[in-house]
Amino acid sequence: MKIVILSQNSTLYSTKRLREAGEKRGHQVRVIDHLRCYMSITSYRPSIIYQGGPLTDVEAVIPRIGASHTFYGTAVVRQFEMMGVFTANESQAISRSRDKLRCLQILAREGIGLPVTGFAHSIKDIEGLISIVNGAPLVIKLLEGTQGIGVVLAETKPAATSVIEAFRGLDANILVQEFIKEAQGADLRCFVVNDKVIASMKRQGAPGEFRSNVHRGGKAEKIKLTPEERSTAVRAAKAMGLKIAGVDLLRSNHGPVVMEVNSSPGLEGIEGATGVDVAGKIIEFLEKKAGSSAPRDRIPY
Fold first, then answer.
1. 179 annotated to a ligand binding site
2. Which positions bind Mg(2+) 1 (predicted)?
3. Cα within 13 Å of Cα(30), Cβ side
């Protein structure tokens, strides 16, 4: 099978592991910078050109689209879909998960556990916004933030007001969420492939740090999920339409709550913590689905 990995950097751990896993199973794997692709949008004959030549005979695509290039990256994925190529995650599903507000609204519609969340436009509504999440302490998040960047814990109402006013003064869109104190700076990363959790780890924030991101000094260890946590992760991925997803949960007093659904989850932390060959599981998924004649679930554009 001819597999294309859409990635800007072929030396990244996740990209290398996916390529190694594909080649180990006898596939032809090529890493392509999606930002260097250009497209011919023509009726009946859509095509993608890379380094001066058309990409042909591609049977499966693994999108590894960076958050800052979601618009163009999903356009490339959509073009592959128009060409009839199987994509591990579809363009619309990626777009849904990247829009944090839209993601939360979809999860809420499906009845999936979430932290109490508020969203507003005007600074005149700050007091009401804070009251939605039952006051301070509360968490303020930039909609465009990644890897814990743009996430602030406000311990008091005056501090929350100042941070919200500052962000809105920069015309930045934000969410406010209840602070899940009982999580004690830890979250669960559930790696979902084809509607199954194949690996899970607990990420513990560094001392004094409420964010558990490994990029911010957090530590990871293998963990066994409860049936409810496993079900929540799978339901969240399905709600987004994602076949490959990293679902981040917090353990709250009222059950597991979803913090984020990631369409391009990293492999290094989860493979290191669990010993699971996640890259191999992803390639196995492609083998089962890319050659299937059965129609795939489609998310309307």
1. yes
2. 248, 260
3. 14
213 is in an annotated binding site: yes
68: domain range? 2-89
**Is position 178 annotated in a ligand binding site?**
yes
- Asked if residue 190 and residue 277 are part of one domain, the reply reads yes
Residue 236 in any domain: the answer is yes
For the whole model, what pTM was predicted? Answer: 0.89
C-alpha 108, offset from chain centre: 17
Q: Are residues 139 and 194 in the same domain?
A: no
Residue 211 among known ligand-binding residues: yes
Task: Assess contact for 247 and 239: CB atoms under 8 A.
Answer: no
Q: Is the pLDDT of residue 88 over 50?
A: yes
Kindly indicate the confidence band of residue 31, based on its pLDDT and cuts at 50, 70 and 90. very high
- Confirm whether residue 144 is marked as ligand binding: no
**Residues 250, 101 share a domain:** yes
Predicted pLDDT of residue 211: 60
Classify residue 295: in a domain, yes or no.
Answer: no
Q: How many domains does the chain have?
A: 3
pLDDT tens profile 5-20: 999 999 999 999 999 9
Residue 217 lies in a domain: yes
